[in-house]
Specification:
Elements: E1 3-14, E2 22-33, E3 37-41, H1 48-56, E4 63-68, E5 71-72, H2 78-81, E6 85-88, H3 102-110, H4 124-135, H5 154-166, E7 172-176, H6 184-200, E8 205-208, H7 212-217, E9 221-226, E10 229-235, H8 236-240, H9 244-255
Parallel strand pairs: 3-8, 3-9, 6-7, 7-8
Antiparallel strand pairs: 1-2, 1-4, 4-5, 9-10
Helix pairs in contact: 3-5, 5-6
Amino acid sequence: MSTMLELTGVNKTFNPGTINEKQALLDINLKMEDGDFVTVIGGNGAGKSTMLNAVAGVWPIDTGSIIIGGENVTALPDYKRAHLIGRVFQDPMMGTATTMQIEENLALAARRGKTRTLRWQVTDKEREEYRERLKILGLGLEDRLTQKVGLLSGGQRQALTLLMASLRKPKLLLLDEHTAALDPKTAKKVLEITREIVEKDHLTALMVTHNMRDAIQTGNRLIMMYEGRILYDISGEEKKNLTVEDLMYKFEEASGEEFSDDKSLLSK
């Protein structure tokens, strides 16, 4: 099996040497094999999104190395590793161009990283491919290719962003609390679509979530973070048999404190 993501000794401190100094990542070691779907859970400030941003290259890490699909990207800025990564953010507005049509958004995603040419229009062949891909979502968007994305609901936009992020079959799909801004019913649907796309395209995915039940029911591996460290890394049968209560107990045992009374953290 090939390794798709390898973090070795990754450290990140924000505002070093100031009163606001915060060690956000503490000696993070993480290895993900081809096809792994890892969910990441932890309280606010645990380092979940910081870890995702480190992988995406949003800012440089202090020490350590990051290898994606066999390529050492440690020193590369985000735009130079974008061809390896698909990303879906918490805000449904972030992944799509509002004033452009659905098919134009998909074409942008499909041509990302390729040389720009003056021949921009979407071909019939591409259109057919987009229709087929949109059918997977089960939202009827395949019949609305020329509709402006700004007219879609949050859930529809997030589903479209998922499709765009996975269109080029990236080495790694990063999901940063991508269902948190949606109502429960829509969040459930988008999560179902996520599982389908990851499985169908055999993608390697890293998903940050606040919802314990989602973290347990999704993927083949679960990581719990606390104060910039990885506390637990659970997979296989152990993950299958996990309960929300188990997770809360593990957190309390390792951190010496109760899981914060953040309602979304305790989502069952």
